Amino acid sequence: MLKLKIPDHQVAGHQAKTGIIGPLIDDSGKFYKPLQDDGRGSHELAFYTSLYSDPRIPSNILNLFPNFHGTQVVEASDGSGLHPHLVMEDIAGNFTNPAVVDFKIGSRTWHPQSSEDYIRKCLKKDRESSSIKLGFRISGLRSVSPSNQCWQPQRKFLMDLSAEDVILMMKKFVSSDGNADEPDCVFASRVYVPVLEELLVLKKWFEVQTIFHFYSCSVLVVYEKDEKDEKRTARAVVKLVDFAHVVDAKGAIDHNFLGGLCSLIKFVKDVLAGLGDFEISNSKP
Amino acid sequence: MLKLKIPDHQVAGHQAKTGIIGPLIDDSGKFYKPLQDDGRGSHELAFYTSLYSDPRIPSNILNLFPNFHGTQVVEASDGSGLHPHLVMEDIAGNFTNPAVVDFKIGSRTWHPQSSEDYIRKCLKKDRESSSIKLGFRISGLRSVSPSNQCWQPQRKFLMDLSAEDVILMMKKFVSSDGNADEPDCVFASRVYVPVLEELLVLKKWFEVQTIFHFYSCSVLVVYEKDEKDEKRTARAVVKLVDFAHVVDAKGAIDHNFLGGLCSLIKFVKDVLAGLGDFEISNSKP
Fold first, then answer.
1. Residue of chain B with shortest Cα separation from A266
2. Which has fewest Cβ within 10 Å: A22, A284, B40, B186?
3. Domain boundary among B61, B89, B117
4. B30-34 and B136-144: which strand pairing?
C-alpha cells in the first residue's frame, strides 16, 4: 500500500486538518489532491485531460504546468476512508528546503457563468484583498531559514497588501531569514531573474491564446534555500496550479489573467531594479 | 460670440438632446464638453491638468490624448443658459467624412473607491455587455457611405457582442458601406495597420506606467471615408477619451486597462490576419 503523508510546504488552498480532507504526498514526488464533490474536482480533471491532449499548446508552455498522472483512490488525509484524488507532480517534492510563494492571478476570480452566490462571495474577497487593486494577491508563502526559523505570514495578513507591502514580501521571500526586519535579498537575482524569464514566456502565450480563461488560478514559485544542495540551487521553478475554474475562452484572450500577470511581472522587475549591481552579479548562479 | 453647434459624429457618451446638456463644437476644431455637476467634470479637468504638467509622460504618449484648452462658459446645447464646459480638440473636426468607433476599455469600469451604488450599476452593465467577456465593449460607431447611407448600430445592440460579432463590426467599420451584409473591408489595412501601431505604443506604456488607472475610458478611432480628401486618407487617428474616472495608480500598473487593451489588439490583429495579402498591399497608403 502507498505510504502518503501531509505536505509541509503547502502555502495555499485547502489544507489537511482533522475533519477536512487535504492533499497528500508520497515519496516518489507525487501530489494527491482530493477530488472535490461540488464539480470543481471533475472540472480540474477535465482541464488536465484537455490540456495534455490539445495540440495547440506549445511544449514550452506545457512545461509551466505540473505533470499529471490521472486519478487514484487513496485513504483520505483525515483517515475517514477511501476517496478519489487527482495525482500530479509534487512541485516542492524534489527540494531539500523549498521556499514557496503562491500568487493568485487576476483581479477577478469568478467567470460570467458562475452562480450569483459564488460571484458575490468571490467579488467580496477580490475587493477585500489586493486582487482588485494589484491584479493578483499573494495567497501564501513560506520559507525556512538556515537556522531553522520558519517564516509563514498568516493568510489574513497577506490578503490585503499594498504595492509597497508586496515588494517587501517579495524581498523577504528571497532573503536568508524572512523574519528579519530588513530583507537581505541574497537570493533575489538567483530567484527572480529566471522567474521573470518564465513569466515573460507565459505572457507571450497569454497575449495570443484564445483556448482557456483561467480564473482563480495561481503562479507558484519554488526555489531551494539549502545552499548545500547544489543540484537544486541552479534555477527557481515556476508552475501554474489550481484549475478548478478554467473555462472556454470563446474567442477572446484571457485579459483578466494577462492583466494580473503583467502586474506581477512589473513587481518582479521592480524588485530586481531595486538591487544594487553588486547584489545581482554576486548572487547569479 | 462663439457660434457653436451640436456634433454629428459623436458615437458615445452623453449626447445633446432637448432637455439634456450635450457637447458642442465650433468651426475652429474645438469640442466643448459640459462640466458635469456631480464631480465628474472637475475630476476630468483635474486629470487633464495633471496629465499636461507631469514630466513623466513621454511625448509620444501625450500625442494619444486630445489637446486640451481649459474651460469656458458658453450657452448650453439645450439653450438653458450659460454653463461651464471643458474645451478640447474636436478629434473628428478635421475630417470631411469621418468614420468613428469608440472602444470602452477594461472589463471593470469602476474603481475600488467608487460608491457601492455606482459599483452595483457599473458591474451590472459590465456583466450585461461584452466588457467582462472581452475586456472592452464597443460603445458606439458610425460611418457614412459614399452614397450617403449612414450606418450607426444602436447602442443596445452593440452592448453585448460576442467575439465573432466584434470581428464583424470591426470589418463593417472599414468597409465602403457598413449596411451591406458582406463587409468588403476596403479600408481595413489603411485603418488597422496604423491603429495597431498606435495601440502597441500605448501597450508598451501601460506595461510600465504606475501613474494613473483609467476606468471607463475609451480608445477612439477616426478615419477619413471621403477618398477625394487626399490629405486625410493617409492615417487613421487613435485617441484616448473620457477621463472622469481616472484615479491614482498607487504603485501598480493599470492591469484592468492593459488587459482590455491587449484583447483589443488581438482583435485588430485577427481582422488584419483575415485579409488576403492582395487586400493588404492593395489598400496600403
1. B208
2. A284
3. B89
4. unpaired
